[in-house]
Amino acid sequence: MSVLRDLEQIFDEHDRRASMLRYELDEINRATAERDRLHDEETAPRLEELRLAAEAEAERERLAAEQEQAERARLAAEAQEQRDAIARAAAARRAQNVVSAYDDDDDDPESEYYRRKSWLV
User: Fold this and answer.
1) Are the CB atoms for 111 and 101 separated by under 8 Å?
2) pLDDT tens per residue across span 23-34
């Protein structure tokens, strides 16, 4: 019977230690939950502040990108305008280099000579 009593003591000791461990684990869980709650209370304003700062930074970046795009479009339009002006000036110069008869008299016999397609006679 001493084996039975020894087994009962072992089981009782096991139950007592398991109960103590469960109590300690519950205590740790309660302390952890309290620390988490306090941490959430402390960090919530800071997280909101960081979120607002990130949104403001994103808005600044978006505005900067829009301004940069507008500046590029303005420069492209300005460059196109300059190219068009150069093309108009070149066309005007070419137009002034063309010699045309000031008299359009079809009855002039020499005019036909000078208007011929080929000068190879």
Assistant:
1) yes
2) 999 999 999 999
